[in-house]
Each structure stands twice: as C-alpha cells, then as structure tokens.
Amino acid sequence: MDATAGFGRFGQFVAAVGRALRDTATWARLLVLQMARLGVDSLPIALFISAFTGIVLALQASYTFTGAVPLYFVGVLVGKTMILELGPVLTGLALAGRVGANIAAEIGTMKVTEQVDALETLAYDPAAYLVIPRVLAGIVMFPVVVAFADAMGILAGWITAINLLDLSTPEFVRGLRLFFVPFDVRYSLIKAASFGLAVTTIGCYFGFQTSGGAEGVGRSTTRSVVASSMLILVLDAFWAVVLL
C-alpha cells in the first residue's frame, strides 16, 4: 500500500514538472547556473576517480595477459572498459552522492523552512524554479563530465602502460584502436544522460517529500543517494540489454 502511494506521489510530481516546462521565463535564466554547479563543479571528483581507475585497469590487464595475450591488448581493455562501463557508471555513482544528495538537502531544507511556500506566495511555480533547471542541467552536463572522465581514464592507463609496463605508445594506441567503434562513445553518453535524468529527478522528488525538520532532511538525502545509486545500476543493465 505504501509503495502504491509512493508511485502515486511520484506520478503527481512528474506531472507537475511536465506542466512547469511551459514556464520558460522562470527556469531558462537559472539553467546556466545549475549547469555550472552540477557539471563544472563535479569535474574534479570525476577526474580523480577515473584517473586511478585507468591506472588499476592497465596494471590488472598486464597481470592477466602476461604470457597468454599480446600486451598491446592492455589498450583494448582500458579503452573499452572505461568508455563502455566504468567511466559512466563510476562517475554516475559519484555524482549520485555529490549532486543528488546536494539537491535533496537543498530543496528539503527549503521545504521544511517554508521557503517553497514562499515561492508560491510570490507567484513562482516551485517545479519551474527548483526542479526543471536542475533536471535539464543534469541531462546536459552528466555526458560532458563522463566524456572527460573517459578521456582521463584512458590517459592514466596510457601513462601507466608506458612507464610501468613493457609497452610503447604505438602499441598502446594499436590496442586502443583495435576494436574501437564510434558507437561506443554514443553508448557512453546515452547512459550518462539517463543517469543525469535519474539522479536529479530523484534528488528533487525526495527534497519535495521532506518533512520533520533537520532529521527529515537527512532522511531524504540518504534516500535520494540510495535510490539514485540503485537506479543507475538498473539503467546500466537496461542499456546493455537494449543497445548492445
């Protein structure tokens, strides 16, 4: 019964957001600010995670391939794994914690301090003012952050390969290009956009459902991160079934 009520509340939330799309005068001027907050400010953590992921991938590939597979296949594994899986998924999970939690806490605090009610008093639509700029920024900026993360992971793998493994740059690039197809990049970016939609929508939803003061804000933040992380893994499997 609680699950049914929850789906009903989420449906009402999505319907309100759909109606608010027409209010472009409110959300359009806030979009660039949210793109900077959600995307540009998230680059350092995404690059940090992908750099060390690329290093570990190169070392583990070398350890696995030694004596059985030509070493230039290190480039294949680093490139394919970063672009198809680890780049978008690890970045998505990291941003579920950073972006999703931030959105849920910010809107939840506004809800319990009645700032959302004040927006309605001032004739602003809360969905147009708070939700749509964040959701659109997530859809646009998550692929940008993931593209940088993919590139950083491959760069870190290349630097590791030429410095710590018996591999030259032409050999690494040969492996990197061996099974590369442009669709891999599109696949990575499609996943990233869906992760951005999921993380920002869930963060906004739990923010608006907040009640009970500071304890309620903490509860909404935790639920947002858990639900976003689970949905990212579900979407990851969904896109693999549909597109691969």
Return the structural class.
Answer: mainly alpha
Mean pLDDT score: 92
Amount of helix: over 70%
Radius of gyration: 21 Å
Question: How is this structure best described in words?
Answer:
The chain is mostly helical and 244 residues long. 86% of the residues lie in helices and 0% in strands. It contains nine helices and no strands. The chain is elongated, with a radius of gyration of 21 Å. The model has no long low-confidence stretch (mean pLDDT 92).
Key traits:
9 helices; mainly alpha; 244 residues
Task: Quickly describe the structure.
The chain has 244 residues and is mainly α. The chain is 86% helix and 0% strand.
Helix-strand layout with pairing:
Elements lengths: L1 H19 L3 H15 L4 H23 L7 H40 L2 H7 L4 H39 L4 H10 L4 H26 L4 H31 L1
Helix pairs in contact: 2-6, 3-4, 3-6, 4-6, 4-7, 4-8, 4-9, 6-8, 8-9
